[in-house]
Prior knowledge:
There is one protein chain. Helix content is 73%, strand content 0%. It is an all-alpha fold. It has helices at residues 8-21, 25-35, 44-57, 61-74, 78-90, 94-107, 113-124, 128-141, 146-159, 162-174, 180-189. The chain contains eleven helices and no strands.
Amino acid sequence: MFFSCSKPGDLTISRAMKAYQNQNYEESLRLFNDALNEETNYSPELIYKFIATIYLQQEDLENAVVYQEKSCELRPDYQNLVSLGMTYHLLNRDEEAESAYKKAVGQNPQKGEAYASLGALYLGQNKIGAAIEHLKTAADYEPKIAVIHANLAVAYAYSGDLEQSESEFKIAEELKCENLEEFKERAREFSPNPSN
């Protein structure tokens, strides 16, 4: 009786997932692509997401972004958009990354991840005011994520507000931020520029 709800492609998906777990990425990709042409209980956008994940695992960003885009076209949900933005950023396609993050904010303005990603992006572009604004919002929604406070500390250092920077670094340290010294080094290297 339980099996009556399954569709032929579901077994293909199951085999694809097993191949992925065994790090047999080529076989997993082949099976997921087969499943796209079979009747299955899995939506195409979810299968595209699986395929993108395999490419990301192999650090094949060019192929990953193709399938992330396909998934987002069918279902532009918050997490899909944030992931797409991150891949765009890794590919140095920052305008598209910014657009994806902004769409994610539009999907769910009460979550911090997209704000944090935008803040980090602006920080890298030396848009310090925008970086601080977005990172502060991210910290309001996700106060326990250490990297947000570390980036905010760097942004404050860039703006010349060393007191606020130190305060954010203390929070980041309490939250056991990984690579904290790298963030501190970035803050130290920058000589404040009042025009930012």
